[in-house]
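Action item from last meeting closed. Structure (288 res):
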């Protein structure tokens, strides 16, 4: 309650970022979103036209508020990093100040500080290719968008995160980092392994320097826009339901609830963890 959250990686109402925003709002947090520049127009238009009103409903019947939507491309840290092909791309034409440092400056100007940072974004241009057939360019792009973006957002937001209430950073990872998931390719498994390792190191560094907690949620499969791009999300969902200890449908709200717990004082002593929210699937070594 009374906290402000910045959630990076929301461009519709189908993914984990949206569910986390909704649950945090329901718990009383103020919500700021970071939306990928090429997806910004359609997201803001849909929001304005009420397309998301049904999924904006909180348990008490009111619609949760989004204080501000910031354009963001977490692959770039400052304007000097942006190549001409992106600068001149018409999908970026209408937006400005969307590199990580510029977004942090804008949030600082608009609101002063935040308490909670959520990283709910990933991109692997070659995700549907096996690792064995992934190019260097595709591998590094997956790593930049899905792992370094977390380091960069934390690095630049940390100085404006409230330490008194114990700031909290949360990201989303997937079990393909530690167990082979055939089809989760393009270096995305490598990027998730980096994200999980970085969670431990950043928990130490940001813990000592800023008293900030850093955790990642290893989530089970959800049919989000990003997951559909992988190409076999239905199979992942069916497998998970059939083989997990709990054999129940995994809802986006399950992840929203876990993130809200991790961001709350109930989790004051939890940092550097990979927190599994997957109906227990990660414990299984043999399907039964
Ligand atoms: P999603 O499509 O809702 O979210 C991904 C978001 O990342 C999109 O909004 C996209 O616009 C944004 N994005 C991509 N590149 C970006 C960039 N350079 N800068 C800023 N934003 C960018 O899908 P999701 O599945 O909810 O993904 C959220 C997180 O959850 C990801 O880290 C994903 O790997 C993780 N996750 C998803 C699943 C699943 O099954 N859906 C399982 C485990 C973990």
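Sequence:
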């Amino acid at each position: 309650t009374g906290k402000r959250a910045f959630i990076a990686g929301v461009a519709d109402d189908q993914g984990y970022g949206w569910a986390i925003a909704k649950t945090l709002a329901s718990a009383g947090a103020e919500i700021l979103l970071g939306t990928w520049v090429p997806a910004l127009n359609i997201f803001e238009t849909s929001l304005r036209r009420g397309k998301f009103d049904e999924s904006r409903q909180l348990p008490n019947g009111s619609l949760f508020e989004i204080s501000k939507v910031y354009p963001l491309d977490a692959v770039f840290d400052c304007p000097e990093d942006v190549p001409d092909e992106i600068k001149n791309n018409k999908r970026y034409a209408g937006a400005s100040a969307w590199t990580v440092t510029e977004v942090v400056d804008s949030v600082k100007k608009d609101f002063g500080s935040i308490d909670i940072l959520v990283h709910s974004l990933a991109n692997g241009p070659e995700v549907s290719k096996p690792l064995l057939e992934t190019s260097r360019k595709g591998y590094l792009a997956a790593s930049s968008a899905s792992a370094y973006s977390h380091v960069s957002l934390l690095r630049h937001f940390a100085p404006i995160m409230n330490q008194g209430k114990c700031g909290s950073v949360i990201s989303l990872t997937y079990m393909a980092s530690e167990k082979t998931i055939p089809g989760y390719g393009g270096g995305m498994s490598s990027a998730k392994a980096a994200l999980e390792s970085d969670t431990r190191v950043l928990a130490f560094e940001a813990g000592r320097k800023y008293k900030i907690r850093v955790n990642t949620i290893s989530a089970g499969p959800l049919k989000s826009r990003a997951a559909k791009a992988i190409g076999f999300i239905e199979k992942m969902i069916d497998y998970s339901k059939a083989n997990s200890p709990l054999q129940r449908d995994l809802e986006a709200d399950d992840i929203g609830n876990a993130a809200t717990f991790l961001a709350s004082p109930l989790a004051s002593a939890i940092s550097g963890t990979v927190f599994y929210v997957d109906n227990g699937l990660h414990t299984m070594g043999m399907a039964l």
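Note appended to the action item: Residues 9-11, 14-17, 36, 39, 72-75, 120-123, 145, 172-174, 219, 221-222, 224-227 surround nicotinamide-adenine-dinucleotide (CB under 6 Å).
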